[in-house]
Fold:
Amino acid sequence: MHGGRGVIGRLRGLVAEVGEEDALIDVGGVGYVVRCGARTLGRLPALGDEALIHVETQWTEAAGLRLYGFLAREERQAFVLLQGVQGVGPKAALGVLDVLSPGELAGAVAREDKAAVGRANGVGPKLAQRIVVELKDKAIGGVTLGASPGGGPMAPAPPSAAGEAVAALIGLGVAEVSARRVVDQATLRLGEDADEATLIKAALRELGR
Structure:
């Protein structure tokens, strides 16, 4: 059941706490507990810094109201699509997005690479195969998984400016977690349209280099 979707779609607030499976986001004095995957938790800004979280709100009788958070809108869309596959719940969907970004997931679906999907915690070979098959022709952020406009296999989505900036920082010797944190902070300040060079300069300033 996906009742309650749209109740909360986005949060902008301070990172108050970060746990093993969730984060506490302080929005005007109200603390929202947001369930996140390991990749998202590792990329959150430092405690006390501002974060912009894209939220998928779900409600079930067993668990009640839960918020699932992501740093990119495409990740939230992929999370929803994954749960449209029979046998995939929130935990497995988060597991897939821990090992594959939306662009990488698109590439795996295009190649029918069930082994890549099967690296996720809680996803066995049969479920990985089902994900690859059922996500054919599904769209994330306007890009159809598994097919190009001409009907052929779709190439993986091109890297984003933020992704390129993270890769550049890692190449300079910055730890991946730190690189993602400062680039995410720069993106939050400068906007999602900021180019790679601008993000790198802002991130290096944050790192004191």
